[in-house]
Amino acid sequence: MKNNIIAVVAFGLGVVVGFSFVATGSEPYGVVVSSGPVYEGQKKLIGSFEQAFTEGDAEGCAKLYTEDTIYMQAELPMEVGRDVVLSGYREYFKGRTNKVIEVSEPISEVISFGNMAAFRGTGKNIEETPAGERVTKTYKYMILSEKQPDGSWQMKWDIYNFDADYGDE
Q: Which of 7, 59, 140, 167 counts the highest number of beta carbons within 10 A?
């Protein structure tokens, strides 16, 4: 009898815990994904960013961030909020003199947390200076994205840093 009561209590506790995760719509731990809707959502997000950045479209870049976003770049102050990020992109594109030939930011890994996802990768920009010289810039990024009510994904945190130029060493 005692074993039956323990089994029933353990089963009941398992049901309650299991339903609590279903009810909140979240996963208890992150799950690495390499396909499916979360993965594809991140690919679409970074692809939209690559296109807007290549075109010098500050509004197109900024609309990919949440209202309360945090953007962290190497050697610059942290930017908080979509409006601040928009101002930063406007200023950057206004002063950009190189022609952007290619932007590539393949995703290395995606971890799903239900309505949030973290993904990271490396990137490469190929630019042409006004004098016609080709310059390649490489960098790393990590993004925490948030699923929006319409099913799209936006960047909540964007951490970007570039690789040092070790060519002269």
A: 140
